What does this fold into?
Amino acid sequence: MFKKIVLSMFIFTAISCLSLHNGINAQTPTPTVVPTPVLKGNISGTVTGKKSGNPIKGAKVSLKNNDLNFKDKTTTGTDGKYLFSDLSAGNHVLRAKKSGYKNEKIKIDLAEGENAVVDIQLKKEKKDDGNGNDGGGGY
It folds into this structure.
């Protein structure tokens, strides 16, 4: 009789353990994918006269990236400085112009998170006095 009770308890315990084990739904947690933040960059600099080295106030500076369908523009202050911020990485074209100076164009490959300093020197245009004395050498 004692053997039957012990055997019954053993079977009951085994069945309980199996039931309990099957009832537990152990799940491996799904990893959460956290996107890597995209670091933005800046392009800044100073527009100066090529010969004088003096800052050029009021120069029009533009920035364009055809791949990103992006364009922006600004005007330099009295210190000749400009700034484009919060930029995505890529190939940008920087242009500067000012009346009386030749336009300047610079290509920049901006890396992610890069803060590029690009100083621009503008060369004065030769003046034409209207009498053909513009240094063209005649006919």
Summary: The longest strand covers residues 41-49.
